[in-house]
């Protein structure tokens, strides 16, 4: 026979709890009974809402609750949605993941961005061609963004550049990035820095003080990698050991870093620094007004895009192994943030939303391209085409028409603004475009199809991308993280056949 005796819970409890003394024979113990309607119901509601069964109260927005997605929202009601938004039927983002074979004639050459050396000379000239006409039954699809249907802009219901909306599993866990995710393998978000079977991350180089890495350079014939940051330093990395071999304190934010032959050029406030890695000589080129955001080399000239909208030109003097001021190009009404040389022309992108085209022989502006609606962040030459990206969420492909004008022949749309472009061949020699977006991702596409090859995640925006021989490439982000990547030697298809 058992006896039950109830006692009051201690006053330190947050809610009334009944402690019941249970006696049976010579044994006695306490049983804690939570009151119905207090603890059980509230806890049940939280679990129910966390699993998506409840609406978290009345949602006042179409935004999904960030904490609910992470399984941590305790608000009821919550002003945000506790359910996923309906998936759209189409997207203007990345291209289809199906394979697309590019013929050798399509491989092309790159020039610009952060390129140096290798097989990417960009020496070819633009060919004049008729502007593509699209969406007509008698017109063959353009090879740009070609997924089996024509179209000058990606993103139709099943047209060029189509990709299905991202699934939850395609998004990286922000708590994992901050080393705070407690769900482990049970987390519904990715716990990895990239998604691809075509390349892999080799290592991460740490040293910049959580400041934006604004430039990366790999001089020809050198075993050193150079990275510049807004922390005011340039770090020199030993490619054999992965260790930092030197730190150059410039006392000013670094706006850009490039290399050409043995030279390394660094743009800072009111100055361009130049180092010859073979002779160990150092030069300071004065003249810029404000920050130097972009640098390029062509026709034995160094060109610098500056904060005041001008482009300064220095000519290389072999006799003194130095540089002399040559000209100041005027025309942009806002800062010049990107430069590239190709086909004996200079292309400059600016915060005034335009691209200007300059003849290198005469240093005269011959075109002003106005198709972008926001800052032109990066320009790149590939084969006979010019590629440009902007904060207006587009990558535009330009080609010369029969009349000699540069016109947009294809527009690739993203869901976020674009920050930088770079290009290189993969392990099989196929051209790949690497572009960073302001959603903290880097996306890789086959050219000219814009089929997706992979995605890289970062804690902050990636502002610097660089390539190196041997299938290596580098990314530097706003957190000061410098990552080293390498293309796989075998294509996924070849590996599958061998297995």
TrEMBL record:
Keyword annotations from UniProtKB, A to Z: DNA-binding, Metal-binding, Repeat, WD repeat, Zinc, Zinc-finger
Per-repeat ranges for WD: 205-247, 329-368
Coiled-coil regions, chain positions: none
Zinc fingers, C3H1-type class: 59-85, 167-194
Domain of life: Eukaryota
A Pfam family hit: WD40
Record has Transferase as a keyword: no
Domain C3H1-type: 59-85, 167-194
Listed transmembrane segments: none
InterPro entries according to UniProt: WD40/YVTN_repeat-like_dom_sf (IPR015943), WD40_PAC1 (IPR020472), WD40_repeat_CS (IPR019775), WD40_repeat_dom_sf (IPR036322), WD40_rpt (IPR001680), WDR86-like (IPR044715), Znf_CCCH (IPR000571), Znf_CCCH_sf (IPR036855)
Matches recorded under SMART domains: WD40, ZnF_C3H1
GO molecular function term, any single one: zinc ion binding
Comp. bias regions, Polar residues: 132-142
Region of interest (Disordered), residue spans: 84-164
This protein's record includes keyword Metal-binding: yes
PROSITE patterns: WD_REPEATS_1 (PS00678), WD_REPEATS_2 (PS50082), WD_REPEATS_REGION (PS50294), ZF_C3H1 (PS50103)
Compositionally biased intervals (Gly residues): 110-121, 147-159
Database matches in PANTHER family: PTHR44489, ZINC FINGER CCCH DOMAIN-CONTAINING PROTEIN 63
Protein's UniProt name: C3H1-type domain-containing protein
Source organism: Papaver atlanticum
């Amino acid at each position: 026979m058992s006896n039950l005796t109830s006692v009051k819970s201690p006053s330190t409890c947050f809610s009334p709890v009944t402690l019941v003394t249970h006696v049976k024979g010579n044994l006695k113990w306490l049983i804690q009974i939570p009151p119905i309607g207090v603890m059980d119901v509230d806890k049940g509601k939280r679990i129910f809402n966390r699993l998506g069964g409840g609406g978290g109260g009345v949602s006042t927005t179409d935004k999904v609750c960030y904490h609910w997605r992470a399984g941590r929202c305790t608000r009821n009601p919550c002003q945000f949605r506790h359910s996923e938004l309906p998936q759209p039927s189409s997207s203007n983002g990345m291209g289809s993941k199906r394979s697309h074979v590019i013929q050798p004639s399509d491989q092309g050459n790159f020039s610009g961005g952060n390129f140096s050396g290798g097989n990417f000379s960009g020496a070819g000239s633009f060919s004049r061609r008729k502007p593509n006409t699209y969406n007509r039954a008698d017109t063959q699809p353009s090879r740009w963004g070609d997924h089996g249907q024509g179209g000058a802009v990606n993103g139709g219901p099943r047209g060029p550049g189509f990709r299905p909306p991202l699934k939850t599993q395609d998004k990286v866990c922000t708590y994992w990035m901050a080393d705070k995710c407690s769900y482990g393998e049970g987390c519904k978000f990715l716990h990895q820095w990239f998604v691809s079977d075509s390349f892999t991350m080799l290592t991460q180089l740490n040293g910049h003080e959580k400041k934006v890495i604004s430039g990366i350079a790999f001089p020809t014939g050198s075993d050193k990698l150079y990275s510049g940051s807004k922390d005011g330093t340039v770090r020199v990395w030993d490619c054999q050991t992965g260790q930092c071999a030197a730190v150059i304190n410039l006392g000013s934010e670094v706006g850009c870093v490039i290399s050409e032959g043995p030279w390394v050029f660094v743009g800072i406030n009111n100055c361009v620094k130049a180092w010859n890695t073979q002779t160990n000589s150092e030069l300071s080129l004065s003249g810029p007004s404000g920050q130097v955001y972009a640098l390029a080399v062509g026709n034995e000239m160094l060109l610098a895009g500056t904060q005041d909208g001008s482009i300064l030109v220095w000519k290389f003097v072999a006799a003194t192994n130095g540089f002399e001021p040559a000209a100041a190009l005027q025309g942009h009404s806002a800062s010049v943030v990107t430069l590239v040389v190709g086909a004996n022309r200079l292309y400059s992108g600016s915060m005034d939303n335009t691209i200007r085209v300059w003849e290198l022989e005469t240093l005269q502006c011959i075109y002003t391209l106005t198709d972008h609606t926001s800052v032109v962040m990066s320009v790149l030459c590939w084969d006979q085409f010019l590629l440009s990206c902007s904060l207006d969420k587009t990558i535009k492909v330009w080609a010369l028409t029969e009349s000699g004008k540069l016109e947009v022949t294809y527009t690739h749309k993203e869901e976020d603004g674009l920050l930088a472009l770079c290009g290189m061949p993969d392990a099989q020699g196929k051209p790949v475009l690497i572009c960073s977006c302001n959603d903290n991702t880097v996306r890789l596409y086959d050219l000219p199809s814009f089929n997706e090859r992979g995605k890289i995640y970062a804690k902050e925006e990636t502002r610097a991308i660089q390539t190196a021989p041997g299938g290596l490439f580098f990314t530097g982000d706003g957190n000061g993280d410098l990552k080293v990547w390498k293309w796989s030697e075998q294509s996924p298809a070849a590996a599958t056949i061998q297995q």
